[in-house]
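Subgroup meeting minutes
Present: P.N., E.W., G.H.
Scribe: E.W.

1. P.N. recapped why we're keeping a running log of single-chain structure predictions: easier to compare across weeks, and new members can see raw inputs and outputs side by side.
2. G.H. added today's entry (119 aa).
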Amino acid sequence: QVQLVESGGGLVQAGGSLRLSCAFSGRTFSSYNMAWFRQAPGKEREFVASDYPRDRTPYYADSVKGRFTISRDNAKNTVSLQMNRLKSEDTAVYYCAAGVPGPSGYEYWGQGTQVTVSS
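Output recorded in log:
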């Protein structure tokens, strides 16, 4: 069973930076698609960024492109999200997700970590 544990959330001023980390355990990390999603109060959960083991091409939501960077460390079984130039609209609970490549999508989710950006 895959387990995901996020860390690194917190309170930051607009324009600042935070780095989220997600620790993966239970299966072979390098085989899994990894992604970050977020959910703001009163809104649907939305995609933020992903990293696929096959092509290693990162994908980003338009709203974070150029400000956020996803990276994985297969030696440490972690995926990180570096968030720069944060805006108040980035305030949300951020979730790490994992899934095997294929139609199943993201089967496993972390508990979430709160990111609050003050303006």
